[in-house]
UniProtKB/TrEMBL annotation:
Region described as Disordered: 549-572
Keywords, in A-Z order: Signal
Name of this chain's protein: DUF4270 domain-containing protein
Signal peptide: 1-25
Length: 585
């Protein structure tokens, strides 16, 4: 019996030994069959970025199809960031304004979009909003965010316009100005003024300019309003975002009696209509596009320099942004290749990452004013129909690759680290730098401008589901009027008086059941939230990054074990980390 158990134990030991024994895997098996010209050696290198500037954004368009932005913020150290806006007032139809009459009211209303401020205490402060009549059309300007309009030579056309951060900005234009606009401009306009929006702003009224008073002490707020007129194209109802001129006693040809009427005006509309018919771009009826020219200025612009030392400031709007020169990136990488005796023509860049650290002592309160994304872009040059040069900014991070870092802030490692892999390959392929005008232009087009982006949440309602639950609400409401235990009251007219004397808590059981189902479904299915990443020219930002000559006192770094940190990670200065492959010979 003992021999039998010994045999079993011996067999089990053998099986266990075989199961845990090492199996050698030759990972180079078959490598001899790969042709030499298809073999690559991979390298990882990094170098400090010295060619970095701190400049206001050049030739960035200030036109917005969604927002009117006004406001001002003063920091504790005295810097001031301003926002102002200009846009046209366009009749919502090709009105006949008649003759004579008295302007009873010319009212302006625009809905709040969002607010931007340094701290919560400034959210509901009162701000004086100054409204001026433009003396020339916006088409005569360059349309850049850096555009400056001097209000000292403009007529102020509204009194007591005050905004408290609430749901809308609302005020009345001065009556005497509204009278002049009606009698001297609108009632005398020629038919050709309706040929185009441009003709109207040129011949009749250019538009309005809005700005707020600067705060005298630290604080302030930047306000963003929705420029588009809210309209339901199914039921043809309006929900705000337009101006109305109410006129009494207007005389029209062919009518004996005087008419009381109201004219509607749209903000920055591109046609004399709330909606536009189907076009080559839109298959059905859509809202008419509307635009405002939003402008920004900042006292920080005086700190602009092509060779920042210890700090790199990122400002909002068209203010200071980091600019990394293509020449500096190419020179730094070529130096590494030369040390390793590598032919630049044989290099394939697998990944290139710009690392922009900021101080590890930055408070979370301060980081609230840091942009969510610092996106690497380059300037793209073109020409308009008149042959004038136009400039736009194109993102250079591959958004189709989920692993590519778009430049998101990392609050754990205190850095931005956008990827520029394909763009770095293009920089490497440039010919050697020279003073030749065409060569300099090519390098300039590859310079990297880091612009501020924001991630915004949009609530999208499922239309069919929304209608169903709206009808369910009506059903429950009328049930409470007529089906209550004592449900008489004043319910016959359905104005909310039903059940005042009746009911006393004896509501129909099915009302409670329907209400429970309503809340359950509404919370889960009736709407969905979508996030969109946009170029943010509106909000207040101030981020302070470490410059090329930042004090070496902050040498610990974060995010990796001390033993694995490179020298540049410890120094926490801007640098480029590049992974590349070289064909073997």
């Amino acid at each position: 019996m003992k021999q039998k158990y010994c045999a079993i134990l011996f067999s089990a030991a053998c099986i266990l030994a075989c199961g845990t024994s090492c199996v050698y895997i030759d990972e180079e098996l078959g490598s001899n069959f790969i042709p030499m010209e298809q073999r690559y050696t991979t390298y990882i290198d990094e170098f400090a970025i010295d060619g970095i500037a701190m400049l206001p954004v050049e030739k960035l368009s200030g036109y917005s199809s969604s927002r009117v932005t006004i406001g001002a913020i003063r920091t504790e150290t005295g810097e001031v960031s301003r926002r102002s806006s200009a846009f046209s007032l366009i009749p919502a139809s090709e009105y006949d304004f008649g003759e004579g009459g008295e302007v009873v009211k010319f009212h302006f209303a625009i809905a709040k979009d969002t607010l931007s401020y340094i701290n919560e205490s400034q959210k509901r402060i009162l701000q004086d909003v100054n409204i001026y009549a433009l003396d020339k059309s916006l088409d005569e300007g360059d349309g850049y965010i850096s555009t400056e309009i001097d209000p000292s030579g403009l007529e102020q056309i509204a009194d007591g316009a005050i905004y408290d951060g609430g749901d809308s900005l609302s005020f009345d234009f001065r009556k005497e100005w509204a009278e002049r606009l009606l009698h001297e401009k609108l009632q005398t306009l020629e038919e050709s003024a309706y040929d185009s929006v441009g003709a109207f702003t040129e011949k009749v009224f250019p538009g309005i300019y809005m700005a707020v008073d600067e705060p005298v002490s630290a604080g302030g707020r930047i306000n963003m309003f929705t420029i588009t007129t809210g309209a339901d194209l199914e039921y043809y109802t309006l929900s705000g975002g337009y101006a109305t001129m109410t006129v009494h006693g207007v005389k029209y040809e062919g009518r004996d009696e005087l008419v009381d009427t109201t004219f509607m005006f749209l903000y920055g509309a591109q046609d004399f209509s709330i909606t536009q018919a189907a076009t080559d771009y839109y298959s059905g009826e859509t809202l008419t596009p509307q635009y405002a020219l939003n402008m920004s200025s900042s006292t920080l612009d005086d700190l602009a320099t092509e060779q920042p030392s210890d700090e790199i400031i990122v400002d909002g709007g068209g203010g200071l942004k980091p600019v990394i020169y293509a020449k500096g990136l190419r020179d730094g990488f070529m130096e590494i290749l030369a040390k390793n005796s590598i032919d630049p023509g044989s290099v394939i860049i697998n990944k290139a990452t710009i690392v922009l650290p900021f101080s590890e002592s930055t408070s979370y309160e301060s980081m609230e004013c840091y942009p969510a994304i610092l996106s690497p872009t380059c300037k793209v040059y073109g020409e308009d129909s008149d042959g004038n040069e136009i400039v736009s900014y194109a993102g250079i991070t591959d958004t189709s690759v989920s692993s590519e870092n778009q430049g998101n802030i990392n609050r754990s490692t205190f850095e931005y680290s956008p990827d520029i892999s394909y763009h770095m390959q293009q920089i490497l392929d440039l010919e050697d730098y020279s003073e030749d005008a065409e060569v300099k232009k090519e390098y300039e087009q590859k310079d990297i401008w880091l612009l501020t982006l924001a991630v915004e949440e949009e609530q999208e309602e499922q239309e069919g589901t929304s209608e169903y639950y709206q009808n369910l609400q009506y059903s429950m409401y009328y049930n409470s009027l007529y089906n209550n235990y004592y449900g008489y009251g004043y319910g016959g007219y359905g104005y909310g008086y039903g059940g005042y004397y009746g009911g006393y808590g004896y509501n129909n059981y099915y009302d409670y059941y329907a209400l429970a189902a309503y809340y359950s479904a509404m919370s889960s299915q009736s709407s969905q939230s979508n996030s969109t990443t946009i170029l943010d020219r509106d909000r207040y930002y101030k981020a302070v990054l470490r410059g090329p000559e930042a004090d070496a006192g902050e040498q610990t770094g974060t995010g990796t074990q001390d033993g694995s940190k490179t020298e540049l990670e410890k120094r926490r200065v801007p640098y480029l980390r590049v992974t590349y492959s070289v064909r073997q010979k």
